[in-house]
Amino acid sequence: MTHKPGRSRRRWVNALAATLALVLAGGGIAASQPSSDPIGPGDDPVFGLANGCYALKSEQSGKFVRRADGGYRADADTVGGAEAFRTHAAQLGRFMFYGKGGDMLAHDGKRAIVSTRDALPTTDWTLTHTDGTYAVTATANGNQLTAANGNMELTDPGVNPAGGRFVLTPAEGCATFPDSEVNATGKPLSGTGPNGEVRGFIDAHVHLDANLFIGGQVHCGTPFDPQGITVALRDCADHGEDGMPALLENILSHGTPVAEHDTTGWPTFKDWPSHDSLTHEQTYYRWVERAWRGGLRVFTNLLVNNRVLCDVYPLKNRSCNDMDTIRAQAEQVRQMQDYIDAQYGGPGRGWFRIVRSPEEVRKVASEGKLAVTMGIETSELFGCSIRNDVPQCNEADIDRGLDEVYAMGVRQMVVTHKFDNAFGGVRFDPGIQGIAVNAGNFLGTGKFWQAEACTTPEHDNPLLSVGDGPAEVLSALPPGVTTPVYPSGPLCNTRGLTKLGEHMIRGMMDRGMIVDLDHMSVKTAEDTLRILEKVKYSGVVSTHSWTDPLNYKRIYALGGFVAAYASGLNSDPKKDSFVSAWRKARADRSEDYYYGFGYGADTNGFGPQAQPREDADTNPLQYPYKTFDGGTTMDRQRTGERVFDVNKDGVAQYGLIPDWIADMRIAAGKDGDKMIEDMSRGAEAYLQMWERVAK
């Protein structure tokens, strides 16, 4: 989770100000346009039902289930008189029965079977198959769907076993279950290049599970939901009907506590997602699928949290503890893999594959699927905060923590983030937002950042004195606190890598893990690089432009990897942009190692996404376009009634990442082909770096 200077420079100060203000202040599913042909059934009699079209028939009576009187009856003589259900896979082995008019088979939480247009947990059914028939049980309570004398009801398991056996008969005329379209046609890139290399893009820094961070109620929406898109992409309840109560969203995204936005969500999505809306979900699974179909091959999901902001924010439904949050997010990633598998007809059939080793990445890539790696970015990993210079953890805590997260599948970690911790000093946030984060540093550690004149060309971001900050931030501090005054000029955090930090780095190296230099102070990064250089350890990265760029040459010299923050595109070499970041990194590359470039989108991490290219109005990306390998045609992405266009919307959500990459060919001018080539080599470059250190 990070923040970039520029248009969004006030976001961290605004976040703290908004949380303080909050402390002080104390519909039915519409049918979608078909996104694609339904996925064909697999061989498994349960999993293979996914997205099929069926009628339910009672085996005992031979009668079909139809809609009647606000519910359902099993008294239709033919399949033509039955309700034709689309079987949406809610999870592996679980289904929703979606009727022709958008009504769903449901129960009332007790015994009655009802019809509803609301995607509720009571529409979720678990199916088991025995000797050609199915038992249908309510996932919420385990009671069995039963037909008796034409009536439908829930009964306790075993009460009426004969009445609880059903046959699923193929039907016609089913409605399409609502979901986002992908708008990509063609076979995803599979196999490897002529020299065995993986071809495709890498996102080295993204936050798929932000719906669970900062107490679980800061972020609106989830990357998936068993009950579908109408539940997954809902606005936050506290945003009200017109967005006016959405204080955090309004200040973060609009710079004012008084703003409105349309909170409807599906199917209109009038105001969100947006490239600069920082509390709404942007990595819905179908959007990630579009990125994969557009050439993404490695997706590094960083588990993320911020305890200090969680403690201050008044709305929460879960623990603020970093490790509790990391565990929950890791579990959600596994559930998402299962959910995508369920859409494709069973375990292992989906395109989203969690990997733990380079070997697994190569296998997944050869199958034409997306390799999902896991990392961590949080301020107090393993409880290793500091309080008045006293570490709150020891070496044994670090060893246990490393063993736990390694077993969890984590292979890449940010060691310091936002606040100084027991491992070392942090790279300052610049400008006004730096005042807010510095206040958070005081609240979390008992001290403000300590700065001094830098003694090397590298430097941390410039600092403003805390006393110059907005009143909202200063009011968060205890009365009578003396705030620091910082000199002008390049400054460095006085804190470097601690002994516990060295133990952490060496522990990561012992396990073949990847060290991310981002968010380390100049001194912490220097101390870390010296340890890595002494043993020529290649497992070092910068994933979203949060280390001094002068460190790039040393990263590359070790055989490490650099990915730049996925910022806007600009062809003017005098202006900072993703194109200029690529040119800088390319100049620093080492000829001793395979070179490729990556991006770190930081999606869902309080980092704005790329805005439209400045000259897109006069020189737009043309739709449809071909992916870099020529194998897939990408058209404008549609979700519900909204059609997204990178020329107008920028990267409003993750499904526009391929469009943003295609747009690089225009932004980089005569270097466009070279830039796309380097991007397409990013996954392999990261993979080779990992292979040099993996245990």
UniProtKB/TrEMBL annotation:
One of its GO terms (biological process) is proteolysis. InterPro entries: Metal_Hydrolase, Pept_M19, TAT_signal. The keyword Translocase does not apply. Pfam families: Peptidase_M19. Keywords: Signal. Residues 1-30 form the signal peptide. The keyword Signal applies. One of its GO terms (molecular function) is metallodipeptidase activity. PANTHER family: DIPEPTIDASE, MICROSOMAL DIPEPTIDASE. This is Membrane dipeptidase (Peptidase family M19). It comes from Rhodococcus maanshanensis.
